[in-house]
Amino acid sequence: MRGLLAFSYQLLAVCGIFLTNVINYIIASYGSRSWDVNAGWRWMLRLGAIPAAAFLLSMVRAPESPRFLIQAGKTEEGFAVLEHIIGTVIKA
């Protein structure tokens, strides 16, 4: 599970960087040099901020990791998060 999450994060980051470069190239190809200097960079920055804002909103909703909660002494909360991630936890 941990490897899948790390791989997914890295893959999506690389895909996002590539997609941003493609979009910036398309925006730059539509305008003149003066338009790029005066307004094009603003469009590039705004479009790049959309995925960043979506990531920020998703991080606000993300729970703390079960390991952190258990180490902080919040065992019940840690098992609740773990159960939410995996499905069910077998309690002894």
Structural class: mainly alpha
- Low-confidence spans: pLDDT under 50, at least 5 residues? none
Q: Please provide the count of β strands.
A: 0
- The tally of helices reads 4
Approximate helicity band: over 70%
Proportion of residues in β-strands: under 5%
Order of helices and strands: HHHH
Mean pLDDT over the residues = 83
Molecular shape: elongated
Give the termini separation. Answer: 22 Å
Oligomeric organization of the protein chains: single chain
* Whole-angstrom Rg: 20 Å
Query: What composes the largest sheet?
Result: none
Give your account of this protein's structure.
This protein starts with a helix and ends in a 6-residue tail after the last helix. The protein has helices spanning 2-30, 33-61, 66-71, 75-86. It is built from four helices and no strands. With 92 residues, it is mainly α. It is 83% helix and 0% strand.
Please give a handful of descriptors for the protein shown:
single chain, 92 residues
Question: What does this entry show, briefly?
Answer:
The chain is mainly alpha-helical. It has four helices and no strands.
How do the helices and strands line up, and which of them pair or pack?
Layout: H1 2-30, H2 33-61, H3 66-71, H4 75-86
